[in-house]
Amino acid sequence: MEKDGMNKPEREHVYLYxxxxxxxxxxxxxxxxxxxxxxxxxxxxMEGTRLCREGLLKPSQAAAFEKHKERLAAAARQYEALxxxxxxxxxxxxxxxxxxxxxxxxxxxxxxxxxxLPEEDRPTAAVIGARSCSSYGYQTAxxxxxxxxxxxxxxxxGMALGIDGAxxxxxxxxxxxxxxxxxxxxxxxxxxxxxxxxxxxxxxxGLLSEFAPGQPPKPGNxxxxxxxxxGLSDAIVVVEARAKSGSLITVELGLEQGKEIFAxxxxxxxxxxxxxxxxxxxxxxxxxxxxxxxDYFQINGGEKLRLHEKNENGLAKKEKMVYSCLDLQxxxxxxxxxxxxxxxxxxxxxxxxxxxxxxxxQPAAHYYEKKM
Amino acid sequence: xxSKVYGVGLRGIDGCLxxxxxxxxDGLPSFVMVGALAPEVREAQDRVRTSLKxxxxxxxxxxxxxxxxxxxxxxxxxxxxxxxxAGILLAEGLPAPDWLEEAxxxxxxxxxxxxxxxxxxxxxxxxxxxxxxxxxxxxxxxxREGLVIPGIRILGIRHVRHLAxxxxxxxxxxxxxxxxxxxxxxxxxxAYAVDYEEVxxxxxxxxxxxxxxxxxxxxxxxxxxxxxxxMTAERIPTILPSCTLxxxxxxxxxxxxxxxLPPDRPLMHARPFRSPHHGxxxxxxxxxxxxxxxxEMSLASGGVLFLDEFPEFSRHVIDALRQPLESRKVVLSRxxxxxxFPADFLFVAAMNPCPCGxxxxxxxxxxxxxxxxxxxxxxxxxxxxxxxxxVSSSPVAFDELRGKGKTEPSAAIRRRVEQARERQRxxxxxxxxxxxxxxxxxxxxxxxxxxxxEERFFRRVxxxxxxxxRAYARVLRVAxxxxxxxxxxxxxHRHLCEAIGYRRQEEWNWKKTE
Lengths: 372, 514
Hints:
The structure holds two protein chains of two kinds. Chain A is built from 18 helices and twelve strands. In chain A, the strands form two sheets. In chain A, strands 1-2-6-5-4-3-7-8-9 form a nine-stranded mixed sheet, with helices on both faces. Chain A has a three-stranded antiparallel sheet with strand order 10-12-11. In chain A, a hairpin with a 2-residue loop joins strand 11 and strand 12. The longest helix of chain A is centred in the middle third of the chain and has 16 residues. Chain A is elongated and about 85 Å long. The model of chain A has no long low-confidence stretch (mean pLDDT 88). By secondary structure, chain B is of the alpha/beta class. Chain B has two domains: 179 residues, 2-Layer Sandwich (Ribosomal Protein S5, domain 2), CATH 3.30.230.10; 298 residues, 3-Layer(aba) Sandwich (Rossmann fold), CATH 3.40.50.300. Helices cover 38% and strands 17% of the residues of chain B. Chain B has an eight-stranded mixed sheet with strand order 3-4-2-1-5-8-9-10.
């Protein structure tokens, strides 16, 4: 191994890659081993029993550690295959390792990256929230992603269904880069529904994971993934969260790491916004417009978004009659007929027109709402 | 001695003439029945023997042989008791009347000798007339039903003891006793117990029902429980065109065979509405049995077949719908041959939008996107492709429950539907088509032509919404019907808009097309 053409950092990578394959080898333990021995090559050369004596490994793990040494060559082959698959291996020893993560209590020893890492000196915001969100929540997250990204903020999230995906989508809409931290290996698209994001983000930003390629999305991975999301961001924006939501874990971690928290308020009594209201009650910043986040980053966001006035321009009189019946919450067709006082056929035609003009949308068949 | 009388059996929904040949010879007493008999026909010997005895007839002990011919045809039902009884009396020595060859006997016997009603009288009498018989002797309770068919004299019989005197009558006497049938049925205008007048609000669902009825389009309602899907669907027969006499006869025949005719009415007066439970088996829908009897699809023929909780039906049942939706009939193959039942119904299905039923109300629905998609995906595409119209339903507002005043009655909607159907009849003269829902291929080009401006508009929507070729045809067919309802020869912008509005939910992939 020592005699091949690899330079020292490369060799360190191989040893780290090998070490991380040891079952039960977590970020904290890997960090401790590195601190004690100075390099991962040195760790490899230690005997399991000695690590055990020093309290770095449990007695039961010592034998496994020795046995695992036989797999170094296989690990080296796998490591080399990574670059062929377009996956970068960035270890904590590398200069490009995100400095925001170095400050964590348990920084991941290495990240697998497809695409790029987030830029170091750019303001970064995580857009997170419920997977089964309302279509209002989806639109809000997408709009925030778009507006913030366009103003120069990096958008970071977990590529989950619902709010997370909407945040990414918004940034992509604006033609900006966005970064997704996954709870599985970067070669696995989870959830499958987000394949369009999964295939686009590596070209326009990056997919990041601390889990080795091929690792399935185990439930236990997601809280660990969340610490990276909060760690990499400067501000965390929660769009919709129920009272007991995984997003609140991310916020909790973010607070420990000293990040700014923004919460989008919902309607009174709406269970989907219960978590956000809880955060506001506890002192999170209330987010009523993308400018609130931009102000925090001291970016001049320009005009505040004025949704309703902006959109009514350029509509015919009857179109306005229908448009003004609509809301940001989905409304059923019958109710629109009732409120507008127009005939069913007329309503159908006008709604179709408005939809083609991009002013309104149907979150589900025959439910209509204003578009942000 | 030997005798021969005529009875009628059923084969599928058609009657078929059967000869009951009876022979009594000296020898050890026995009673043998032959001729491919179902158990209930074989049991006839005990009923006949006992009822004749109880009615006071005696015969010499001897060897009785009864053959129901054609011997190869499987006979089912209890209608052969009466011809067998008559045959025994004749074989025992009663002189055969001159009209015996011209008469057909139908009836079941009770042990006391009473004659009981049987199923399928309409088909049997039709067959008797087809075979140019002059008389049909029926159980008294079936006489009203038999009288529906013109061109044959119907005689009722209440008890076996009248059998002997009937057989002693001459032809003239019989002519006087019998009644000539024919449909002088009272005109039933308001034939339905329900009416759209009672449905407040629900504009979209009612309008969709109207369009579906006008063009014969199959319909899918998607909405939470208690949003009026069943209520709207069960009123669709009230807006279908009024039945012609021929249609009423066709509907009644099937009901008669299934024993579902209302006792006070020999002819069905209304178009059927059938709503089988989602636990129904394939056979319950298509019809089945060794000698097949019609199922729900045939019972709904001429009216509406409504499948509530559509995805909950077994996959086999859903698949069994495919062929009848296409060919408008059910074909069952048995060793004994091929049976065809009509299945010309308007298909209406209803389902929840997601497993919990509340989507898109996210305050109450916490189903995941993939759950919702897989719920909708449970329906096979070939079935969905045969559904032209799909609308959502929504919880009913308080005002609608309070009933702020009467809404349009079914009769008014029915008039529009009938006008639209009339336009279709004229348009499709000389083609195999009957309704707009049947327009396909070349006919689409011929009957659903768009003007340049509409063409442009439709092209734009087609491309933006990434429609499929099937969706394209569906929109045009439905637009054709809407234009017919509107009294327009040309499909206009507003017709297209409405038709596009009835597309299916999963064709509406909003996250990507936005």
